[in-house]
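Handout, section B. The chain below has 149 residues.
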Amino acid sequence: MGDYDEWVGTFDPIDPGTDSKLDDVAFQLYSSGTTGRPTGVILTNANFSSLQTMVYGASPISEEVLSACVELFKPCTFWQAYGLTETTGVVVSLPPEDHDPTGPNAHRLRSCGVPGPGVELRVVGEDGNDVPTGDVGEIWIRSPQVMKG
């Protein structure tokens, strides 16, 4: 198998100009299969034409890519969600008002947001002490929704 970037580079970087209809498949996801085998979930262009809010998370996104998406999908709003299996879902979020790449809070695009109700959060160093804002550390979360143990 060859290099992905090399393969992509063999194509012209232009819009092929393909027309699409509202009932054309735009995206396919798979359910987790918790009650059986994973099932394909198909979304059409109609699903995306009524999109109002884009919730994202699960992995880092660069400020450049996020800013481009915010502009591309206007007037759709964006909402960052951060959580873990151990926290039984979202514990920190960055709301739509903090997704303005040209506004006074543009620096918040690099943040996962603020803790939700009942969530206590610290970012600590190897010594267990809080690190200064902007430094790398381990995230400690305390909340009634965190798993036992």
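Note. The beta strands are 25-30, 40-44, 53-56, 77-84, 89-94, 114-115, 120-124, 138-142. Compare this with the example in section A.
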